[in-house]
Specification:
Blueprint (H helix, E strand, L loop, with lengths): L3 H12 L9 H4 L3 H7 L7 E5 L5 H14 L4 E5 L1 H5 L1 H6 L5 E3 L4 H12 L10 E5 L2 E4 L8 H5 L42
Parallel strand pairs: 1-2, 2-3
Antiparallel strand pairs: 3-4, 4-5
Helix pairs in contact: 1-7
Length: 191
């Protein structure tokens, strides 16, 4: 499926006037080496990866390679797994931050702070590395009602639609998020 969370973040960043590039390596069959080759000139100031339970180890490995190639860039992960266990991601990689919870405003504020010459890792909703220590900044409140409605549409133009298919259906698909979070509190689920 299209990386809807990153497409929402990209829409927010574009609305704020930033140039955004989104690479869905899994959908387009890119190797980690091919992804690294795409991080060319000019080098990005901020690189984010979305992650899940199934992909966390591979995502952190790629994030480490990105950080090694672009040591001045702020490299972060977002997604449900990072939100649930940010310390695990921080202690098992060289990333600069984990975006906890809803990413749109957190990432946009990181970029605003960076552009203004202030500390982009001081914003709410992040778990960050401060020297050898991992620190969790205060949580960012969840978006509700009108705040959700005010979010820009996902920047779907940044990824090709052709790779997103369901084998039993003709043509590419798109996804939407009609709600956020989960209304169920299952005892076996960490989310």
């Amino acid at each position: 499926y299209p990386p809807l969370d990153l497409l929402h973040v990209a829409g927010m960043l574009e609305r704020d006037g930033h140039r955004v590039r989104l690479i869905d390596a899994e959908a387009t069959g890119m190797t980690p080496e091919a992804v690294l080759e795409q991080l060319g000139d000019p080098a990005p100031a901020l690189v984010g990866l979305t992650t899940s339970s199934a992909t966390l180890a591979l995502d952190l490995e790629l994030a480490d390679r990105i950080k090694q190639r672009l040591p001045r860039a702020i490299v972060f992960v977002t997604g449900s797994q990072g939100s649930k266990v940010p310390d695990l991601a921080m202690h098992n990689s060289r990333i600069d931050a984990v975006v906890r919870g809803e990413p749109e405003h957190t990432v946009a504020e990181m970029l605003r702070e960076l552009s203004a010459g202030r500390d982009p890792l001081a914003v709410a909703g992040l778990t960050v590395r401060r020297g050898a220590e991992v620190v969790s900044n205060p949580d960012r409140p969840l978006l509700k009602g009108p705040e959700l409605d005010a979010l820009p549409f996902p920047a779907r133009h940044l990824v090709p639609s052709a790779p997103y298919r369901i084998p039993t259906m003709a043509g590419p698909i798109q996804t939407i998020a009609s709600s956020r979070g989960c209304p169920i509190n299952c005892t076996y689920c960490g989310y």
